[in-house]
Amino acid sequence: MARKGDLPVIAEIYNYYSHHTTATFHDGDITPAELSKDYPPGDQVYRAYLILDGEEIQGYCGVRRYKNLRAYDRTVEISIYLKPEHTGRGIGKIALSFLEDHARRAGIRVILGTVTGENHASTRLFEAAGYSRCAHLRNVGEIAGKVLDVVMYQKEL
Q1: CB burial string 116-129: b at 16+ within 10 A, e below
Q2: pLDDT at 144
Q3: What per-residue confidence (pLDDT) applies to 85?
Q4: Residue 154 · residue 132 · CB < 8 Å
Q5: CA-CA distance, 136 to 157, in Å (whole number)?
Q6: Starting from the edge strand earliest in sequence, which strands make up the sheet with 146-156, in order?
Q7: How many Å apart are CA 21 and CA 36, to the nearest integer?
């Protein structure tokens, strides 16, 4: 489990994607304080994890609240971000399985994954892991001069 002191590293990994890709619609640096809202330190359900190989940080993954209403307490949204040099090696698949196990233990029943329409690596990951495409929102976000779709995937545990 990531600790409060790990949030700057998580922010650095995420900010790479906000500056260099269309994998997120975030248009600037995310701060550790902002991340602590998604992953409150010490929370037993909504948390982030560093992905390590020995001492080397390869990325992070996390489970965050879907919406801030009790009606959605059975549902989470997940994120997986790897340092660019660690993509394409099956780490995302392992992280996704880990997050599913965490969600089951926490009593979660539904996992959602949200990706931009051109994020084909994440689309392949979710589909290979048995997630169903549950929403396709056309032309809803704009980043880096591109208007993009948002695709949501869902898995019931």
Answers
A1: bbebeebbebbeeb
A2: 86
A3: 96
A4: yes
A5: 22
A6: 47-53, 56-65, 75-82, 110-116, 146-156, 132-143
A7: 23
Q: Are 60 and 71 in contact (CB under 8 A)?
A: no
Residue 112 to residue 99: CA distance in whole angstroms = 11
Answer yes or no: are the C-beta atoms of 112 and 130 closer than 8 Å. Answer: no
d(CA 39, CA 46): 5
pLDDT computed for residue 24 by the predictor: 93
If one counts every other C-beta atom within 10 angstroms of the C-beta of residue 132, the result is 11
Lookup result for tokens 């902002």: 34
Show the low-confidence residues of the chain (pLDDT under 50): none
Contact at 8 Å (CB) between 81 and 17? yes
Q: How far apart are CA 148 and CA 106, in angstroms?
A: 33
Q: Is the dihedral of CA 94, 56, 35, 87 positive or negative?
A: negative
